[in-house]
Amino acid sequence: MFVTSNKFSLNGRGSIKLATLPVLAPYHLLAPLQKFKNQYLNLNLSIQELEEEAIITGLKHRVYDLGIIRKEYIDEKEFDFYKIAEDELVALLPIHHPFSNTTEISLTDLKDESFIFMNKHTGIYTLCLKSCQDAGFYPKILQTARIETILSSVINGDMISLLMSQQLNSFNQHGIVVIPIKPTIKSELGIIRYKKSPLRRNQKELIHFLSNSK
Predict the structure, then answer these.
(1) How much is the pTM?
(2) Does domain 14-85+188-212 have CATH number 3.30.70.360?
(3) What is the DSSP string of 117-180?
(4) Are the beta carbons of 54 and 177 closer than 8 angstroms?
(5) What are the pLDDT digits (tens) for 29-85?
(6) For residue 176, pLDDT beyond 80
(7) How large is the average pLDDT for residues 136-149?
(8) Which helix (H) or strand (E) segment is 178 a member of?
(9) CATH superfamily, domain at 87-187
(10) Which residues is 86 bridged to in the sheet?
(11) Three-class secondary structure of residue 213 per DSSP
């Protein structure tokens, strides 16, 4: 942990290279990042959207200074993690599914279903797979895809899916029923730094800014 003042005292010089999952819009991080940029007009904050493995590799090779990623994907012996948001797993069902009128559902209720998951290289795939295994079954995964394809497949009634609740904020959910999983399965999103890399003051301020933006 570190301590920083609420009033920004940097002169705005320098640069920060930030690698992030495609989560800025659904987790409402665009406005805080723009506010930070406005605070430091002379600071070059470059942002690139990547998947988890590329973020981790880029941080280790000093291609990026900081990353935004899910806690489940990192080794906390190698990375410092500063929480930005917390989310929970939900089931996505077509509107005519037998469970579509329930207010909550357990993963064991879905053990005989056919699933479409996020792509295998994502942390969400790993979390969903592990959650099903912890519930006592191996899910029948017929397809992996991006969110847009997942939503279309669920609407068509071909398969069901599991996603994090806030991932859906940027998408039209018409034709889909979103049901909370019980017991709750949570995931934390945060900003990370590689412990072997030096922590500059402007990076420290960005970490403080984002981890206190909610």
Answers:
(1) 0.87
(2) no
(3) EE-TTSHHHHHHHHHHHHTT---EEEEEE-HHHHHHHHHTTS-BEEEEGGGGGGS--TTEEEEE
(4) no
(5) 999 999 999 998 889 999 999 999 999 999 999 999 999 999 988 999 999 999 999
(6) yes
(7) 96
(8) strand 176-180
(9) Periplasmic binding protein-like II (3.40.190.10)
(10) 188
(11) coil
